[in-house]
Write a structure and sequence with these properties.
Helices cover about 40% and strands about 10% of the residues. By secondary structure, the chain is an alpha/beta fold. It has a five-stranded mixed β-sheet with strand order 3-4-5-6-7. A two-stranded antiparallel sheet has the order 1-2.
């Protein structure tokens, strides 16, 4: 059995089990691990990382016994609920007509599907993806077709499906090369997630998953890996929402505790993030809540807001003080949310290894599974 080792110090190597095949069956060999996922110079494998006390996480050891999976085959999913309101629809019709388009969703979806090649259709995220792109372009059919083709190409090249399944321990039928690739991806995402800068936990009152982002916990300058980490959590939040309520959108809570301008991400990273959110995940964000932003955030916001689409800007709520709490209490059961989202109950500290390696893909952190 072979395992790629990857560490923050860029150490690379090959790890072979020391026994013969019978020794391995009897548990005398070395188990396969996704590797290196730590800042600690003493931890070189997942097993070392799990035993490293420096993380000081309150993890449940029992929680990592069950292998995570992103398969929906075992789930009893609820019917899909359209998150589009009558006001949303009327605005799209009005905008379409003002630009000389006729807003017809059934015709639009049919036309988009007809424009896709069989190869492109393989990378559709789900059956409603054409509808989301048509709605995002407010009836501009040519633009909707252009953008969905761009997104399908991106999903293939960015290996979104591999990112989704890299922690799935059911690797039956996969080649040795593919298993190594997935192990590498798992190592990258686990390393990016060490500080808990992004994760899913809980839901709003209508069953949309909450994705917590804390930019002050940024631990990486690798833009590519940062984006893979982001995509993993977007896909996971979408999956949690689908299982919980049948809805298609997610909530994003951004907490700027510890944020300083000197550790603000480069503009290229900001643009890359916005491109992914706006171009490749249209109609997926219900609302973003920027909670208790510090004074220094104003300078950062004045720069990045010019790159945000007006439709997205409408979905951003700044939550500070009593007025901010009113918004949070309106949308969330604050007895179940974290403090930065107006939470009134002390919750378990986030544990990265439990969330990534021991929690099913369609469940958030500290959520009862099954």
């Amino acid at each position: 059995m072979t395992v790629l080792l990857r560490s923050r110090s860029l150490m690379k190597g090959i790890f072979h089990h020391g026994g013969n095949s019978e020794d391995f069956k009897e548990g005398k060999g070395i188990n396969r691990h996704a590797c290196v996922i730590t800042h600690s110079p003493s931890a070189t494998t997942l097993a070392d990382w799990e035993d490293d006390d420096s993380h000081n996480y309150q993890c449940s050891d029992a929680a990592i016994d069950e292998p995570p999976t992103n398969s929906e085959a075992h789930l009893n999913l609820p019917p899909i609920i359209d998150d589009c309101t009558e006001l949303d629809h009327s605005r799209r019709v009005e905008t379409a007509e003002s630009h000389g388009f006729t807003f017809d969703e059934a015709h639009g979806v049919e036309s988009i599907l007809h424009a896709l090649t069989p190869h492109e259709r393989q990378f559709l995220a789900d059956d409603n993806m054409p509808l989301r792109h048509y709605r995002a372009e407010k009836g501009n059919l040519n633009e909707a077709i252009r953008k969905i083709k761009s997104t399908l190409k991106w999903r293939e090249e960015f290996a979104v499906e591999d990112i989704k399944r890299c922690f799935d321990k059911n690797t039956d039928g996969l080649s040795h090369k593919k298993r190594e690739e997935l192990n590498q991806l798992a190592g990258v995402i686990a390393q990016e997630n060490e500080t808990g800068k992004i994760y899913c936990r809980g839901y709003d009152k209508e069953g949309r998953a909450i994705l917590y982002l804390t930019p002050g916990k940024e631990n990486s300058t690798n833009e590519w890996n940062n984006m893979r980490h982001l995509v993993y959590h977007l896909e996971r939040a979408i999956a949690c929402t689908r299982r919980k309520s049948g809805r298609e959108k997610v909530c994003i809570v951004i907490r700027y505790q510890g944020f300083k301008l000197r550790n603000a991400p480069p503009i290229s990273t900001v643009k890359h993030t916005l491109t992914i959110l706006q171009s490749h995940y249209p109609e997926r964000m219900y609302r973003a809540y920027i909670c208790d932003p510090p004074f220094v955030f104003r300078s950062f916001w004045n720069i990045i807001k010019h790159f945000i689409d007006p439709a997205t800007l409408e979905k951003i709520a700044f939550c500070a003080g009593k007025e901010g709490n009113v918004v949070l209490e309106r949308d969330f059961d604050t007895s179940t949310t974290e403090k930065q989202a107006g939470g009134t109950t002390k919750l378990r500290e986030f544990c990265s290894k439990e969330f990534l390696f021991g929690t099913l893909f369609h469940w958030g952190f500290d959520e009862k599974q099954g």
